[in-house]
Design brief:
345 residues; single chain; 54% helix; six-stranded mixed sheet; alpha/beta
Length: 345
């Protein structure tokens, strides 16, 4: 029996394992892409059979019911009435199947089809691909109104860009999602909670907290100690953002943010910039999270201060999606009205 040389053998095993893993992954993705194309084409056949895609409701329902029955008899499982209906909706929602990300599964598509607004649906599709959301996380982000929260502070151009590209992280302000939603902690709104208890619960649910913060965050530490002139201070939570290459410092507040909280965070930022930053790191970012935010006080307290310091609100429960949607529609109407007036002039 030949003796296998030990030099490089482990590396050979690793190379083969890596190749197999990558190959299987590509195979699964290829199957998924073909499945999407097939379902889209099924939807196309149904719509084209109907009266130009504008069939009467009764006729459409009857057709879907009969198709589901006959397709199941001929081809087996996978053709329930709801599934056949969704194939039709898939075709109607996407004019070209090539525009659908290859990272989407049919389960992703089923969730996206629940979103009527094309702008909102486009955002979730792009963001799912950017952050590699599973179906469960996609459902949570849709339920928490992420698109509406991000769009609330943008103009029409920003909203359209958000819908077509997703949330691209290029600068510190791109990290802001207001309010942050901590419904995964399952804390009743009326509950009395200390800052330490909130911090503990967030750390116990770190994976979901990171998903809510967004792509690129890595956890560094809790109650991170810094020492200045032999006086010890502690930052509640410290993260590092891989994309922006910056430390992100977070302080949690149960009560209203005071001006001295802002001054303290600014001191932390100065310390990290001088003592913790490594080669290639950019200025650190400071975020004070509070359930309440006095906009005017924050404006005055941060006057002339580090531009990378932010005060954000958080909620322990899901936001009112209809209220957020009304705000979005109001912004779009205002922008359209402004454009019309400019054209008239």
């Amino acid at each position: 029996m030949a003796v296998i040389p030990s030099d490089g053998y482990d590396q050979l095993l690793d190379q083969i394992g890596s190749t197999l893993t990558q190959g299987c992954g590509r195979a699964v993705q290829a199957v998924n892409v073909h499945l999407m194309e097939t379902y889209w084409q099924v939807g196309q056949h149904i719509v084209e059979f109907e009266q130009g895609g504008q069939a009467k409701a009764e006729y459409g329902v009857g057709l879907i019911r009969q198709l589901a029955k006959d397709l199941t008899l001929r081809h087996g499982k996978g053709f329930s009435r709801s599934n056949v209906f969704n194939m039709r909706q898939f075709y109607l929602a996407y004019s070209k199947v090539q525009t659908v990300s290859g990272l989407l599964s049919w389960s992703h598509v089923l969730e996206l089809l629940k979103v009527d607004d094309p702008l909102e649906r486009g955002f979730y599709e792009k963001q799912m691909a950017l952050e590699r959301w599973g179906v469960r996380e996609l459902k949570r982000q849709m339920k928490s109104g992420l698109f509406l929260r991000l769009a609330a502070c943008k103009d029409k151009e920003g909203i359209l860009k958000l819908a077509s590209q997703g949330q691209i992280i290029e600068q510190p302000t791109d990290l802001l999602r207001e309010p942050l939603i901590f419904e995964f902690l399952k804390i009743p709104e009326v509950a009395s909670l200390s800052e330490t208890e909130l911090e503990t619960r967030l750390c116990e649910n770190l994976q979901q907290f990171l998903l809510e913060l967004g792509k690129g965050f890595t956890f560094v530490g809790r109650q991170y100690r810094i020492t200045i002139n032999n006086v010890h201070y502690r930052v509640d939570l410290v993260f590092y953002h891989r994309i922006l290459r910056r430390f992100v410092l977070i302080d949690l507040k149960i009560e209203d943010v005071e001006h001295h909280d802002i001054g303290q965070m600014n001191m932390y930022l100065g310390y990290f910039a001088a003592e913790e930053n490594g080669e290639g790191d950019s200025e650190p970012i400071g975020i004070i999270l509070s359930r309440h935010k006095d906009e005017l006080m924050v404006e005055y307290a941060t006057y002339g201060m580090n531009s990378q310091l932010f005060v954000q609100k958080y909620q322990l429960y899901l936001p009112d999606r209809e209220e957020l949607r009304r705000e979005l529609e109001r912004t779009l109407r205002m922008e359209n009205g402004k454009l019309e007036r400019e054209n008239e002039e």
